[in-house]
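I have been asked to look over a protein record a colleague put together. What it holds is a sequence and that sequence's fold in token form. Please read both lines and tell me whether the tokens look consistent with the sequence. I do not need a full report, just your reasoning and any doubts. This is what I was given:
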Amino acid sequence: MDSTRDVIIQSTRFDEAVAFYRNVLGFAPTIVRERMVGFETGNFQLFVEPGGAPGPVFDFECDDFAATKARLLEHGCVIVDENPAIPRCYLRDPHGLVFNLAAR
């Protein structure tokens, strides 16, 4: 498993969050979709999605999604959100860190 440069936040005020990061902080949008906007910040790429607020979500990729997910669940991680169509899931580890696990 490897980390990416991506950090994801969810906001119940999606349009306001997008405007804040674009207009106030001055980050340039790199990806614009209906339910996600990505911003280049320099050292990491920030993604804003509509939804609840699990806090900042770091992004990890793996070669064997099913096996890695099973191993993490066996060791105390819990699923916060999941989208099998991608596949990807947000997991909270036993120490409170929420991260996105995605197939490489």
Observations:
- The chain has a mean pLDDT of 92.
- The domain at 2-103 is CATH 3.10.180.10 (2,3-Dihydroxybiphenyl 1,2-Dioxygenase; domain 1).
